[in-house]
Design a protein that fits this description.
Elements lengths: L6 E3 L9 E4 L3 E6 L2 E6 L3 E7 L2 H7 L11 E2 L8 E6 L6 E4 L4 H21 L1
Parallel strand pairs: 6-8
Antiparallel strand pairs: 1-2, 2-3, 3-4, 5-7, 7-8
């Protein structure tokens, strides 16, 4: 595919030198183990979450809506993005893009356009 990504989170130390990309119909993760793709048809929600360590210090165990998760990088220790999926073996991904709020905004905008196009067809 020669598509140009809508948003690219460059690889940094906090993402363990992995790159995360938003396209018009999917989110892609370039990990040390290979590429992981999540089609927008599988996405339930995308949100930004604070560091779990910061929450634990306050006594928040982050048990509300708990799902086992695949953590792609330093997500326990940094503000990160939570991507919940409808399908697949792994239903929750935690990852730390360069700018979590910007990544979430780009992904939600692309997801809204994708869902609107699907509803109109």
């Amino acid at each position: 595919m020669n598509e140009v990504p809508i948003h690219v989170s460059k690889s940094t130390v906090k993402s363990l030198w992995q790159e995360y990309r938003v396209y018009a119909d999917r989110v892609e993760f370039e990990t040390r183990f290979g590429w992981m793709t999540v089609p927008f048809g599988h996405v339930e929600r995308i949100e930004v979450s604070e560091s779990e360590v910061k929450g634990l210090v306050r006594g928040d165990l982050h048990l509300k809506d708990f799902r086992p998760a695949l953590k792609l990088d330093w997500a326990n220790f940094r503000e990160h993005v939570v991507l919940d999926k409808r399908a697949g073996l792994v239903r929750r991904l935690l990852f730390t893009p360069e700018d979590p709020a910007a990544f979430k905004a780009a992904a939600e905008a692309a997801l809204a356009r994708y869902r609107q196009a699907a509803a109109n067809s």
